[in-house]
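Below is how a single chain appears once it has passed through the pipeline. First comes the sequence as given, then the structure the pipeline wrote out for it. We keep one example in the README because the format questions we get most often are answered faster by looking than by reading.
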Amino acid sequence: MTHRITIPDDFPRALGGTRAEEKLRALGEVHLYSDKAKDQKELIDRLKDAEAAINIRAYSHFTRDVLTSCPKLRLISIWGTGTDNVDLAAARDLGITVTNTPGANALSVAEHTLAILLSLSRQIPRLDREVRSGEWPRLEMVQLSGKVLGLLGLGAIGRHMARMAKGLGMDVMAWTFHPSQERAKESGLRFVSKEELLKNADVVSLHLRLTDETRGFFKKEDFDWMKPTAFFVNTARAGLIEPGALDYALQSKKIAGAALDVYDQEPLPPEDPLTTLPNVVLTPHNAGMTPEATINGLMMAVDNVESFLTGREIDPAHMVVKGSR
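Resulting structure:
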C-alpha cells in the first residue's frame, strides 16, 4: 500500500526543494501545499485522505474538529518543538501519534537570543539609525560581563544560552520545573526560586515550552519583582506571558527594556504599542531560521515519518503523543 503524506502549510517555503522533500517522496505519495489554507475547511480538505502529515507552520491549527474530520490520519510530525497549535488531548483520544523535533534549532535560537540581547544592551538599532542619518550619538550602554543572567527554563536552548553567556563573563542562575544538582553542575549554574531569580537577575530570558501548564506563566506581578535596570528577553512563545503584563512593565518602566522574537499576534501589527517604544528590540519570529537549523529540523521531521510508516521505533525524545491508530 502506498502511504499518503501531506504537508498542508509549506508557506513560506521551507521543505519544498530540499533533500528532506526528496527523502519524503521516497516514502510514499506526497502532497505538498505551498500556500496557506484560507480556513479550517480547506485545511481539512488537504488532510482528509492523509495517513501522515508534516506540520511546518504554527498557523495551521489541528483542532479536534480538524482531527475528527480526518479519520485516516495516523501521524502529525511537527517541524519544531512547539505543539500549542495541535489539540494534543484530541490526538490522544483519537489515537493519533504526534512527534516534534526538539533541539533541531536550539543553537540558532540561543545565538539569536544573545544577539538581540546585545542589540538591546548596546542600543544597536538606535545607533545604526542615527549614524545613517548623519548623527554621531554618544550613548551610555550596558556591559553584560559581570551581570547576572536568569534563565526561566533549562532545555536545549537554555543550556546553549547559559554556555554562551558564561563566555561573556555573565553569572548564570536558572529556574526550572525539574532542578537537580547534576543538571546544575553540567551547565555550570545554580538553580534558584523564581522569586530569587527575578529579584537578582540583570537579564531575564524565557525558555519554556508553551503548554496548558505554562500559559500565562509570567505575570504582571513578576515584573514588579525585577530590577528597574533589568532587561527581559523572549524567544520562546508570547503566550507564556500574561496578556498585557509586558506592555505594563515597559510603559511603567518597571524594567529597562525588552528584546522579543514572539508576539501575541503575528505578524505584529504596525500599530502595536511595542513598535513605538525606544527600549524594545523586535525581530519577526525568525530566531531559528538558519540553513543549518532548517535542514536539521526538516530531516528530523521526515525521519519521524519514516520511523512511523516503517514500524521502526521513534526517538522517545521526539514523541509527544503515542497514538494507537
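The chain is about 35% helix and 15% strand.

See the next section for the split statistics.
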